[in-house]
Specification:
Blueprint: E1 2-6, H1 13-23, E2 28-33, E3 54-57, E4 73-76, H2 83-88, H3 90-110, E5 115-121, H4 144-158, E6 165-171, E7 173-175, H5 186-196, E8 199-202, E9 209-214, H6 215-227, E10 236-241, E11 247-249, H7 250-260, E12 265-268, H8 284-289, H9 299-312, H10 327-336
Parallel strand pairs: 1-2, 1-4, 2-3, 4-5, 5-6, 6-10, 7-9, 8-12
Antiparallel strand pairs: 9-11
Helix pairs in contact: 1-6, 3-4, 5-7, 5-9, 7-9
């Protein structure tokens, strides 16, 4: 199988490529990335893209047809990947996360690609009171990032798939160690705070619910989507990806980190405004249709791996929220130094 991965040079991509290289050794893996975060290496002993057979550099908004030649499967990871970036670059978020993804999927199917996998998000549930959200429940996207995921899912669902099997993986909030670590994710942030300053400060009341998933288990679900048959969910399926036991309130996550990092303490800003993004998610459908690819990493394991990885990097930056570990800060630095335009295109060099 020839697998093309867009956005392979981010946080999730290197873990996915490494996983596929191990579980699908005969696959030929192609990467396609703009390279915004290529320099943001953390625990990498080598350039992660060495695990790819071919690495393309380019913008998904100007995706060339020739990249799809001889491709059997497309995994779409490329995205403006969180709410702060989406707020700062709302138009670009729609262009990359929605319009470009929908266009690549359409062209891939037209060229006979047999598997299309889209990295969607449970954030589209937004603010959801009551029970855990199922795939059939109403969506309530609160941010540009979440709206872009909804729009792409709608485009994929409306696509004539031909012979293709198309999967939208509604991922829980990502966490865990990666060769390009992000610390603008809730659990990763808490572990970094515990190690750098000895104190975790929750910038809300700690009550919101979030489902989480380790990047290793995200990679496992992508493997499933690349190999599943249409009778596992349908020729097109949108499915919540995670596990019931990984639905946590934010303060529960912080308390778990305190238990795993000796000397760490917890501070909650009781006066902070409530975070409207709160939702529990039902993962029964994924459990039923992907029984061999269920999440395996526990919360304690994810914390321990982050701790070991950060300690191995001699991490001690208490001001990390202004560093390259925060994806928005990376983009802002590129723009301030004249490398990127305001619409996130590289300047002429």
């Amino acid at each position: 199988m020839n697998v093309l991965i867009t956005g392979n040079m981010g946080y999730i991509g290197p873990v996915v490529v490494r996983h596929l290289r191990r579980t699908m050794p005969d696959a030929r893996i192609y990467g396609y990335d703009k390279g915004y975060f290529g320099h943001c290496l953390t625990d990498a002993a080598m350039l992660p893209e060495n695990d790819c057979d071919v690495q393309y550099f380019g913008d998904v908004r100007a995706f060339p047809d020739e990249v799809l030649e001889q491709i059997d499967a497309v995994v779409m990871l490329a995205a403006i990947s969180n709410d702060p970036m989406g707020a700062s670059f709302e138009k670009v978020t729609d262009e990359i996360n929605h319009l470009a993804c929908a266009d690549i999927a359409r062209r891939a199917v037209a060229r006979g690609v047999k598997r299309v996998v889209f990295a969607s998000s449970c954030s589209m549930y937004g603010s959801a009171e009551g029970g855990a959200r199922k795939e059939t429940d109403a969506l309530n996207p609160l941010t540009a990032y979440a709206r872009s995921k909804v729009a792409t899912e709608q485009a994929l669902a409306a696509l004539d798939p031909g012979d293709a099997v198309i999967t939208s993986l509604r991922f829980s909030t990502a966490c865990g160690m990666s060769p390009r670590l992000r610390l603008d994710l809730v659990l990763n942030d808490f572990v970094a705070c515990a190690l750098a300053s000895g104190e975790i400060t929750i910038l809300s009341d700690g009550q919101p619910w979030r489902p989480l998933i380790d990047v290793e288990d995200m990679a496992r679900s992508i493997e499933w989507a690349l190999t599943r048959e249409a009778d596992q969910g349908g020729q097109y399926v949108a499915v919540n990806v995670g596990a019931a036991e990984w639905n946590y309130q934010v303060r529960d996550l912080a308390e778990a980190v305190v238990r795993r990092v000796p000397g760490a303490r917890l501070s909650i800003n009781a006066d902070a405004p409530p975070d409207r993004r709160s939702y529990k998610v039902d993962f029964e459908k994924y459990r039923q249709i992907a029984p061999q690819h269920q999440p395996q990493v526990t919360l304690d394991q994810a914390i321990d791996r982050l701790k070991i990885g950060l300690e191995g990097m001699h991490f001690s930056d208490a001001n990390f929220r202004n560093s390259q570990f925060m994806r928005l800060k990376v983009l802002e630095a590129h723009i301030d130094d004249g490398r990127l335009t305001s619409d996130l295109n590289w300047t002429a060099r």
